[in-house]
Design brief:
CATH class of the largest domain: Alpha Beta
CATH architecture of the largest domain: 3-Layer(aba) Sandwich
Structural class: alpha/beta
Largest sheet: 5 strands, parallel
Strand content: 25-35%
Number of domains: 2
Radius of gyration: 18 Å
CATH topology of the largest domain: Rossmann fold
Number of strands: 14
CATH superfamily of the largest domain: Response regulator
Number of helices: 8
Distance between the termini: 25 Å
Strand order of the largest sheet: 2-1-3-6-7
């Protein structure tokens, strides 16, 4: 899961980034309205943490632009402005939650998990696909009740595909979603191939009824046998 933090206060931005990375999210940051818009025009995210008061623009205007662009990211507004008017405006524009500063990192993490569950997992903490169960709260994968041991990137790749069964995924899009936006600057995607190769072997050895198939000259897709 990839998260974008749009927050101009460096200490808070770094604190949030560190807390969410400990929760195994891929985290990208923007310190201004302009940087946030550039990120959102070029990349996709699972969740946006959005400050209302930015040095060069209004966070609510950024939210309005995101929705106008037809992007599907869930949005949590984080702001020192705790007025009812701001909350209503944000929710009316399509925000999924509103968290007033100051807040505890544990509460922020819980809010992020909650909106992601609603958007991607039908409100549950488990993804069922074929005979595979993915427990998103514990990062555990089971095949017919038996635990499948995956490393972090193998798990992240499986979750990414499990949320998009049957959909063709370009290797560069997969890399950006699992490793972060900076990955678009690499010369090749050998690291993607290696992780997918290992994941496919583990799924096969574990008796999984799902397979990540390579599509020549494009990328991959997950299919259920």
């Amino acid at each position: 899961m990839k998260i974008l933090i749009v927050e101009d206060e460096p200490s808070l931005r770094e604190l949030i980034q560190h807390a969410l990375e400990k929760e195994r999210y891929v985290v990208e940051v923007a310190d201004s309205y302009a940087t946030g818009m550039l990120k959102l025009e070029d990349y996709d995210y699972d969740c946006i943490l959005l400050d209302i008061m930015l040095p060069d623009g209004d966070g609510l205007s950024l939210l309005e632009n995101v929705k106008r662009m037809g992007k599907k990211e869930c949005v949590i507004i984080i702001s020192a402005k705790d007025s009812l008017e701001d909350k209503v405006s944000g929710l009316d524009l399509g925000a999924d939650d509103y968290l007033a500063k100051p807040f505890h990192m544990a509460e922020l993490s819980a809010r992020v998990k909650s909106v992601i569950r609603r958007h991607h997992y039908n409100g549950t903490a488990c993804i069922d696909i074929g005979n595979v169960k993915i427990f998103t709260d514990t990062y555990q994968v089971q095949v017919e009740g038996k635990v499948l041991e995956l490393n972090k990137k193998e798990y992240d790749i499986l979750v990414y595909f499990a949320n998009r069964p049957g959909r063709l995924v370009d290797k560069s899009t997969l890399a950006e979603s699992v490793w972060g936006d900076h990955i678009d600057q690499v010369d090749n995607f050998d690291f993607v191939y290696a992780q997918i190769k290992n994941l496919r072997k583990k799924l096969t050895a574990g008796g999984a009824s799902v397979e990540i198939k390579a599509i020549y000259k494009f990328g991959y897709k997950l299919v259920v046998e």
